[in-house]
Amino acid sequence: MTSSRDKLTMLTAYDYWTSQLVDAAGTDMILVGDSLGMVIQGKENTLEVTVDDIVYHCRAVSRGRKRALIVGDMPYLSYHISPAETVRNAGRIIREGRADAVKLEGGSKRIPMIQTILDAEIPVMGHVGLTPQSVNALGGFKVQGKNDESRKRVVEDALALEDTGVFAIVLECIPYDLAAEITERLSIPTIGIGAGPHCDGQVLVTHDLLGMSLGKPPKFVRQFANFTETGIDAVTAFNDAVRDGSFPSIGESYKASKKRHNLRLY
Ligand code: KIV
Ligand code: NA
Q1: Which pTM was predicted?
Q2: In the record, what terms sit under GO molecular function (predicted)?
Q3: Distance 6 CA to ligand 1 centre (A)
């Protein structure tokens, strides 16, 4: 697809329903991102997400997927300690979570660990630029690659990852001309988020594009729908209908008969 210039699409899913939706719409890849720590656990950052969390959500997502490639995110501290722990954690995401590949953050520094995962026959996706697991080291969620030194580091990291054998790289929150330069220099696909239009593909958090978050989204998000508004309207209508007695109607209720209904109990 990279050589044919067809853009790749990747979206997050953390559950069965979202996985079915994203897959049915023809998305190329589903990311079970550690963004779930913020999006569904309501935390300030992604640092507390565990391998168990990722495995649990990957399993649900795998049941809803028909054709998209599933990428499981390696959470903070799951690939930092030793090669043995790294391979075991990546292996759990594949074997218990039923993901097809893993993604992890960082450049040159992470290469020995990436190598051990690749040696276990697990495809790896890279992630450079703004790496949210480095939030404390970076001093916040900030655009990376804005000066010459930082720019050079991002380019070198991307090249080193390609050399190591990752199959694609996420470029997060870097200037669009830097993303264009990296995309030009690499033969593997670049998947941008807040990295401009020149990448080989784009990734977004599905909750953001569907308008499923209550706060103000970052600049790089386009809200393609407003599920929050639709959801509040629907829930308000339910509350009103219950309170005024119009829900449920008799048509939405069961009648007694000789043959007992096969009730579906929850
Ligand atoms: O966790 C995530 O959702 C991600 C994407 C934003 C790339 O890593
Ligand atoms: Na992530």
Answers
A1: 0.94
A2: 3-methyl-2-oxobutanoate hydroxymethyltransferase activity; magnesium ion binding
A3: 22
Rounded to two decimals, the ipTM of the complex is 0.99
**Backbone torsions φ then ψ of 241, nearest 5 degrees:** -65, -40
CB 131 within 8 A of CB 172: yes
190 CB within 6 A, ligand 1: no
Query: Domain-by-domain residue ranges, the chain?
Result: 8-227
Region for residue 215 given its phi and psi (left: phi exceeds 0; alpha: psi -120 to 50; beta: otherwise): beta
159 in Cβ contact with 183 (< 8 Å): no
Whole-angstrom distance, CA of residue 2 vs CA of residue 187:
8
Q: Ligand 1, residue 36: give the atom nearest the CA.
A: 1
Q: Is 33 in the pocket of ligand 1 (CB under 6 A)?
A: yes
134-143, pLDDT tens digit by residue?
999 999 999 9
**Cα separation, 178 vs 180, whole angstroms:** 5
Q: Is 194 left (phi over 0), alpha (psi -120 to 50) or beta?
A: left
d(CA 18, CA 23): 8
Helix, strand or coil, per DSSP, at residue 72 = strand
Find the helix or strand (DSSP H, E) in which 192 lies. strand 190-193
CATH hierarchy code of domain 8-227: 3.20.20.60
CA of 220 to the centre of ligand 1 (A): 13
In angstroms, rounded to a whole number, what is the distance separating the alpha carbons of residues 143 and 172?
8
Burial class (CB in 10 A: 0-12, 13-18, 19+), 215: exposed
Nearest of 205, 115, 93 to residue 166 by alpha carbon: 115
Atom of ligand 1 nearest to the CA of 33: 1
Residue 208 corresponds to which amino acid?
A: D
Q: Average the pLDDT over 235-248 and give the result.
A: 98
- The token duo for 60 is 């649900």
